[in-house]
């Protein structure tokens, strides 16, 4: 006779419910852990080493928005995976194609970014050539692919939604 404990039955029942909530939580894990580290690094540079850059105007918005977007993007994968069969890593690597144009549009309209002929000017202070932006974007794509494939994929499996 295979009798399970009541708490195991409850756990199995919960694993079969709320898949989108679990997908959201799995998606927000990485940026929620990483973004505060960037903030600590910025604080050390700004307050500890007295390096003055006007970048703090651009920190709050991404720190508030990126984890939610990662969670929603994981819900999109959870919802569409049965019909598209798109691997999670590739799905995650598509997210920067949405984030970059949206971020540039917002930054341009808020006056934090000016687009020139050969370079972008961030906060009226930092001149970045478009070639450098392309190289960084390619590295970000590779990073997103690996993070989504291995870390978000692992958390999806642990939460029973992969």
Question: Which secondary structure elements does this structure contain, and how are they paired or packed?
Answer:
Layout: H1 6-15, H2 19-48, H3 60-84, H4 88-109, E1 113-115, E2 119-122, E3 126-129, H5 130-158
Antiparallel strand pairs: 1-2, 2-3
What does this structure look like?
- The structure is a single chain.
- The chain is mostly helical and 162 residues long.
- The chain has one domain (17-158).
- Helix content is 72%, strand content 7%.
- The protein is built from 5 helices and 3 strands; from the N terminus they run ααααβββα.
- It has helices spanning 6-15, 19-48, 60-84, 88-109, 130-158, and strands spanning 113-115, 119-122, 126-129.
- Strands 1-2-3 form a 3-stranded antiparallel beta sheet.
- β1 and β2 form a beta hairpin.
- The longest helix has 30 residues, at 19-48.
- It is elongated.
Would you kindly provide a brief summary of this structure?
The chain is mainly α and 162 residues long. It is built from 5 helices and 3 strands.
Keywords:
mainly alpha, 162 residues
What's the alpha carbon Rg, rounded to whole Å?
Answer: 20 Å
Succession of helices and strands: HHHHEEEH
Write down how many β-strands occur, each being a DSSP E stretch of 2 or more residues. Answer: 3
* Shape annotation: elongated
Which stretches are poorly predicted, pLDDT < 50 over at least 5 residues? none
Classification by helices and strands: mainly alpha
Strand content: 5-15%
Largest sheet: 3 strands, antiparallel
Query: What value does the average pLDDT take?
Result: 84
Count of DSSP-assigned helices:
5
Ends apart, CA distance between termini: 31 Å
What is the topology, as strand order, of the major beta sheet?
1-2-3
Number of domains: 1
């Amino acid at each position: 006779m295979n009798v399970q404990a009541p708490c195991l039955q409850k756990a199995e029942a919960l694993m079969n419910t709320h898949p989108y909530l679990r997908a959201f939580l799995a998606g927000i894990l990485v940026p929620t852990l990483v973004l505060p580290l960037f903030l600590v690094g910025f604080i050390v540079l700004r307050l500890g080493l007295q390096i003055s850059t006007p970048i703090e105007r651009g920190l709050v918005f991404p720190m508030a928005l990126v984890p939610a977007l990662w969670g929603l993007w994981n819900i999109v994968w959870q919802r569409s995976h049965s019909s598209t069969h798109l691997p999670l890593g590739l799905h995650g690597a598509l997210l920067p194609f949405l984030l970059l144009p949206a971020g540039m549009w917002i930054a341009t309209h808020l006056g934090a970014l000016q687009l020139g002929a050969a370079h972008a000017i961030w906060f009226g202070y930092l001149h970045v050539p478009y070639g450098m932006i392309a190289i960084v974007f390619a590295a970000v794509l590779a990073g997103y692919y690996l993070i989504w494939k291995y870390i978000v994929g692992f958390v999806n499996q642990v939460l029973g939604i992969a």
